[in-house]
Design a protein that fits this description.
This protein has helices spanning 3-17, 59-71, 82-90, 109-125, 134-139, 141-144, 167-177, 194-200, 217-227, 240-249, 266-273, 287-290, 305-317, 319-336, 339-354; strands at residues 23-28, 35-38, 41-47, 50-52, 55-57, 75-79, 97-101, 128-131, 150-152, 182-185, 208-211, 232-236, 252-255, 278-281, 297-300. By secondary structure, the protein is α/β, with parallel strands linked by helices. The chain is globular. Helix 1 (3-17) packs across helix 15, helix 7 crosses helix 10 and helix 8 (194-200) packs parallel to helix 9. The chain has a 6-stranded parallel sheet with strand order 12-11-10-13-14-15, sandwiched between helices. It has a 4-stranded parallel sheet with strand order 6-7-8-9. A 3-stranded mixed sheet has the order 1-3-2. Helix 8 (194-200) links the parallel strand 10 and strand 11.
Length: 359
């Protein structure tokens, strides 16, 4: 489950607890597409037929969406997903609508030229837009065009929903990795800045643990081998209990994403939730809303391995300061980023859209 999927699940579960009936429509490659009941909401999965630039398309989703849209009071989209823009207009939706705007479209510049008219028509048509951080709202050229109907609802996580690892599992990872290591968790994608992290790990002796799999994993492994690094460890995809164990045991969480494709940073927030000092890059997105420079951790320029290395060295050599930042990070999580706060904020938006008249 990726970051956006996790956010949708958290919103669905949280708003259901506030009395909202929730149906989620998504696409799946599983030939056994159907409906799953989970955590109080229904997840409907339409069979994907093909993909273009990581965007799934499904013929059956048109009919399924139109049928579902007739039965609900309000429709909540998640952007970007160009296929759903098409479904929205083809179904002639006449219900209150909002969209959570997760990210600008960064990489597919040529396709964006084709998609842009549909994108603006779609964003113009919805009743409300939610940005996930004030930082992203302030730096997105697209969102600035719709500022009058944008509000900010930060992504939130439910710590109680995370698996508690056993003492045996904690002991296993402590024995394997030692008492002090830096941790990255995430899908290994082009915008995560991991090539910068690997370069920053040169000429250092602190362990850097990378958890996750993804399309550039082999490229990163080749870089480590080429540089002859012995302090960078790839653990691949791990289950939830192992991930939580590593978050609990690590010294600090690294998040070197260097492009705006990284709109928020779920695993960075997880680091804060577990009371860890953070290191991230300033890319004008939600990462610097989570990580406040000098308070919850350190913030460095993007694509700057020397600055990243210096930040790691600073935390490594100053454990008391690192512990203070970790405490501040956890406090900031509880103040701004819980799933309950996020769900209540969405509930309030739903309420306004369904009854816009002043009380």
């Amino acid at each position: 489950m990726g970051g956006v999927e996790q956010v949708i699940a958290q919103i669905a579960r949280g708003t259901h607890q506030l009395g909202v009936g929730v149906d989620v429509l998504s696409l799946t490659a599983d030939p056994q597409a159907g409906t799953v009941h989970t955590d109080g909401y229904r997840a409907h999965r339409a069979r994907i037929n093909f993909e273009i630039a990581s965007t799934g398309f499904s013929a059956s989703a048109f009919l399924q969406f139109k049928r579902m849209a007739k039965e609900v009071d309000l429709i909540h989209y998640h952007f970007p997903w160009p296929f759903m823009d098409m479904v929205h207009f083809a179904s002639r939706v006449n219900k209150p609508t909002l969209v959570t705007y997760h990210s600008d479209i960064i990489r597919q510049k040529n396709l964006l030229r084709v998609y842009r008219p549909l994108m603006h028509r779609f964003l113009s048509s919805v009743d409300s837009i939610v940005a996930t951080s004030p930082n992203y709202l302030a730096t997105s050229d697209v969102l600035s065009q719709y500022a009058s109907k944008v509000r900010v609802i930060p992504i939130g996580l439910d710590k109680a929903a995370y698996t508690t690892p056993t003492q045996d599992r904690l002991r296993h990872w402590r024995d394997a990795l030692g008492p002090k290591f830096f941790l990255f968790v995430g899908v290994l994608r082009y915008y995560k800045g991991l090539h910068v992290l690997i370069e920053a790990a040169q000429d250092t002796n602190f362990p850097v643990v990378i958890v996750g799999a993804g399309p550039i994993e082999q490229e990163l492994r080749d870089q480590v081998a080429r540089l002859g690094l012995r302090n960078v460890f790839f653990l691949g995809y791990l289950d939830e209990a192992d991930k939580v164990a590593l978050l609990m045991l690590c010294y600090a969480v690294l998040f070197p994403s260097h492009l705006r494709s990284e709109a928020f940073g779920i695993s960075l927030l997880e680091g804060a939730m577990f009371g860890k000092p953070l290191i991230s890059s300033e890319i004008g997105t939600g990462t610097t809303y989570i990580n406040i420079a000098g308070e919850t951790g350190l913030v460095v320029p993007p694509s700057d391995p020397q600055a990243l290395r210096q930040a790691m060295q600073t935390l490594w050599n100053h454990p008391e300061e690192a512990a203070r930042m970790g405490q501040c990070a956890e406090q900031r999580y509880w103040e701004h980023f819980t799933a309950a706060q996020m769900a209540k904020s969405y509930f309030d938006v739903y309420s306004v859209l369904l009854d816009p008249s002043p009380s």
